[in-house]
Amino acid sequence: MTGTAGGRAAAGTIQALQAALAGEHAAVYGYGVAGAYLTGSLRAAATADWLAHQVARDRLEAMLRSLGAEPAAAAVAYQLPAGVHGAAGAAALAVVLEDRMATAYLGLVVLGSTAIREYGAQQVQACALRAAAWRGTTVAFPGMTAAALAAPRQQQS
Amino acid sequence: MAAKPTRRVVLAAAAALPFAAASGCDSLRVVGAPPPPAPDVTTLREAIAAEQLMVDRYTAVLRNAGGTLATALQPLLDEHRAHLAQLRSRLAVPPGSRYRLPAPSARASAAVPAAASADIAFLRSAEQAAAAAMLGRVRRAPGSLAQLFASISASEATHVPALDAAAGRAAP
Question: Is residue A88 assigned to a domain?
Fold first, then answer.
């Protein structure tokens, strides 16, 4: 491998971390909305998950800074996947946020750095656990897209 | 090579090489033992064997389970079967290869406890160990295989609270 390939790998790492960070910004915003429609133990769960995503966001920002990159800032507001009008919609929103984050963290699992890979895999687990709690059921392949499951892809990444 | 080969093709070609050399051409002799499989092939085989074991464990428990417990466990077994099928699809076994996919194990079936609460505790610890082992494979696997291992590990981790909920429902 040449220095150019190493440079590309670093760019890929930063791109994947920025994508995960953008997702975490959206998740923090989304849980803020979801929590407003929940009460009691569900509200407590949403608050705990909201805090978990803030911790994950801070961690990604620190990782990006340590690689010399400027972390992407949060948007003022985010387009939610569906309107939230009550507790059921709030739980459905939480499921979507967690599923998207699981996919984003799978993007870290292909990277060259073992530490980032392992962090990504741990976060996929954390997202899957939260998604299962909100969904009320488990799924076979958290974060995997239909395309990724349909055909094994080429390894160059 | 004109095009980049896919992972499956590479695995198949590497595994088929000794057999092609032995049977395809009279003027060639195989020198020494065939090379050991690539580390990622070994890791994938390990993952397949581990997943087969989880399917066996659930199958054995479900053989004696009824009612609420069976209803709770069946979706988890279905997910392990999906994991197994997906892992197997990543391994190209060339015809004539000595490698055999692991068959359902009789020993795993025999090692199942009798009471429902013990069944759930048995599956719970098996899921925890399986999720941790699958997470460990992420480090050793290339790209898309690492993603699959991470996703399966996450799915297995979610089975632990699902089993806890089943234990709560099964308790008198």
Answer: yes
ipTM of the complex: 0.90
What gap in Å lies between CA B87 and CA B79, rounded to an integer? 12
In a domain, A150, yes or no: no
Give B43-102 pLDDT, tens digit per residue.
Answer: 999 999 999 999 999 999 998 888 888 999 999 999 999 999 999 999 876 666 666 665
In total, how many domains does chain A have?
A: 1
Chain B CB contacts of A120 under 8 Å are: 150
Which amino acid makes up residue B6? T
Instruction: Retrieve residue A113's tokens.
Output: 């750095």
A141:B155 CB<8 A = yes
How close does chain A come to B152, measured CA to CA in Å?
A: 6
Residues from chain A that touch B76, judged by Cβ atoms under 8 A, are: 138
Backbone dihedral region of A94: left (phi > 0), alpha (psi from -120 to 50 degrees) or beta?
A: alpha
The CATH number of whichever domain residue A64 belongs to comes to 1.20.1260.10
pLDDT in tens, B103-156: 655 445 545 556 777 889 999 999 999 999 999 999 989 888 999 999 999 999
Q: Please report whether residue A141 resides in a domain.
A: yes
Q: Do A155 and B142 touch (CB under 8 A)?
A: yes
Fold classification of B39-170 (topology level): Ferritin (1.20.1260)
Q: A154 to chain B: which residues are within 8 Å by CB?
A: 4, 6-7, 144
Alpha carbons A87 and A139: distance in angstroms, whole number: 22
3-state secondary structure of A56: helix
Structural domain boundaries enclosing A33:
3-74+81-145
The domain locations on chain B are 39-170
